[in-house]
Design a protein that fits this description.
With 106 residues, the chain is an all-alpha fold. It is 71% helix and 0% strand.
Length: 106
């Protein structure tokens, strides 16, 4: 399993990337609408996509913050459902994973 410091660094880097993304999305959503109705219709469609991306990004932010909290408490790498260790390969693929493969499949 990777060291706690390397996992923390990886999670913190991803957190920083996502925070910048949320800022950019928020800025885009606050821009004034185009005065042309046809252009505004396209903007509204784009805003729907941006809102979906924003929602997904905020969910991932919460997952990463929770993973960082588990690192701080010493619970990182343990399945929240069964308490067994989460496989290192799973944590490498999904550093914010909260469950082992067996519990995730259930």
């Amino acid at each position: 399993m990777p060291t706690t410091d390397s996992v923390r660094s990886q999670l913190q880097h991803r957190l920083d990337v996502l925070l910048r993304r949320v800022g950019a999305i928020t800025s885009d959503l606050r821009r004034p609408g185009h005065p042309d109705w046809a252009e505004r219709a396209v903007e509204v469609e784009n805003d729907d996509v941006l809102e979906g991306l924003d929602d997904a990004t905020r969910i991932e932010l919460a997952q990463i913050r929770a993973a960082l909290a588990r690192l701080d408490s010493g619970a990182y790498g343990r399945c929240v459902a069964c308490g067994r260790a989460i496989a290192p390969a799973r944590l490498k693929a999904i550093p914010s994973a909260t469950t082992c493969v067996a519990c995730a499949a259930a």
